[in-house]
UniProtKB/TrEMBL annotation:
Lineage: Bacteria, Pseudomonadati, Bdellovibrionota, Bacteriovoracia, Bacteriovoracales
GO MF annotation terms: glycosyltransferase activity
EC nos: 2.4.-.-
Protein name (database record): Glycosyltransferase family 4 protein
Keywords: Glycosyltransferase, Transferase
Annotated source species: Bacteriovorax antarcticus
Amino acid sequence: MKRCLWVVPKGIFPVRDGARVANQALLKSVRPHFNELDIMLFNEEDSDELHMSLYNSEFNPTNVYFFKRASYPNKIKKLLFLAKSFLTTPSLPVTTGYFHTDKQKHEVTQVLTHRKYDVIVFDGLHPFTTFMDLPEFKNIPVVYRAHNVEGDLWSTAASKTKNMIIQKLLLWQGRKMTDLEMSLARRAQKVWCIAEEDLKRFKSLQNGDDKNLVLIPVGLDFKKSIHTGHNSKSDKINLLFLGKMDWAPNKDGLKWFLEEVWPKVDTSRFELQIVGSGDSSWGTELFKAPGINFIGFAKDLEAIYSNCDFSIIPIRYGSGTRIKVIESISKGVPIVSTDMGVQGSGLNDYFKAETADEWIKVINSLDKKRGQEIAALAFTQLEVMYSPASIGNKAINSIKI
């Protein structure tokens, strides 16, 4: 009997950011290969259990374990908690403190004592810290599904700040994150890398050893439909930025775009929709600029995509695959992006812009008809690469259970 425990760092539903899209897509594609599937969620929201019907319909799980992790909306309390986390476990990154409390370790121990697993899949890094020192976990085969190279995100963020103290803190935490990630990679039977660039980076971190590394991209359904642009009565071209507002690469890229590019875009011809969950308070004033419609979290992304003409991705750093790239193309929406923005997707057909001047020039010259021609080429290319069934089969065939 093949019995799997699938561990994710937060609730999957509602699917409102790239990480959740990735969680849902791979879990759904591999589900048929397991006789029994338990899902373990670490979430700071009490409402996640309200989505139980979605977990049942999407994954048909044997059990779903909802473990609430600490949440501190108050910044002072959050800083005190992170300080305590450092003092308690100085060898671990402070952000993992939410996942290895005594309460959570006890809850996981209870599960591992009563349920015997053939494999545990960590669909994200942080929850590994709950398990890593538990005797019951010692001999269970492990797979790590890496959404990006976590340590590199910290070091890149450090390179973008001019404050020397913050820079040193970020680099210090980045080294701890890399140590943690390599600890899991060494323990894992396989590391499922979401992008080719990440696989190469893991190989370099493992001193050239790639025996346990496998490229498992995100699989999404591509529906053959003709996208004719937004349904608004306005003749304006509707641009879309979609992404988690407090994920550092998204915040950096969008803030840069709104400060350096948008003021020089012809807003008599263009509108920008900004959609995404997470803390967006950093952009309150920027979102008031002419031509911008800040939506925030949107439950119905189908409606959002059907009402846009182009998706913009001004990402300047980060790793992993931009889920929004695959998702946009799967819905027939053409993309304007930096090279970094489409990294890991394999996409060749898009409107490329790097500098502010290039972005201004490209956007002001956008044409709906040409956009749809590019979107059709991109659709044909990515549809073959991201078939959920083939990706699910590749993932399962890479492990012995």
